[in-house]
Amino acid sequence: QVQLVESGGGLMQAGGSLRLSCATSGLTFSTYAMGWFRQAPGKEREFVAAITVGGVTTYYADSVKARFTISRDNAKNTVYLQMNSLKPEDTAVYYCAADRGWGGERLRRAYEYDYWGQGTPVTVSS
Questions:
Q1: DSSP assignments along 64-109, one per residue
Q2: How far is the CA of 44 from the CAs of 6, 37, 93, 101, in angstroms?
């Protein structure tokens, strides 16, 4: 059974940092591209960041570029999202997702992903 479990969310003041983790099991992690998405109350789920299988290529939404960094540790079957300079508009539930495709710009599209975690909430106060 495939499982993706996010952790690291919480309450943070604007300007602070958080590091999200997504631990996976039940899949061959090193063969999956990974992504982070978020969904704010009353809004649609949106793309945040993605990383290819080997970790060579990363993709970011314009709204988080230069503030967030996605990384992966294939030995630990885990993907991370380092979030710096947090803003109130970053408040959302953050989800990680796994894609067994070939990567590329398609990683920005939620429907391309095969597996999803349950999400971890992030609240940024002003």
A1: TTTTEEEEEETTTTEEEEEE-S--GGG-EEEEEEEE-S--GGGGG-
A2: 19, 10, 11, 23
Collapsing DSSP to helix, strand or coil, 112 comes out as helix
Q: What is the DSSP string of 25-40?
A: ESS-GGG-EEEEEEE-
What's the burial of 68, exposed, middle or buried (CB within 10 Å: 0-12/13-18/19+)? Answer: buried
How far is 10 from 7, CA to CA, in rounded Å?
9
Contact yes or no for 45/94 (Cβ under 8 A) = no
The structure tokens listed for 98 are: 């796994």
Is residue 111 classed as helix, strand or coil in its secondary structure?
A: helix
pLDDT tens figures, 11-68: 999 999 999 999 999 999 999 999 999 999 999 999 999 999 988 999 999 999 999 9
Give the integer Cα–Cα distance in Å for 12 and 59: 25
How do beta strands 3-7 and 78-83 pair? unpaired
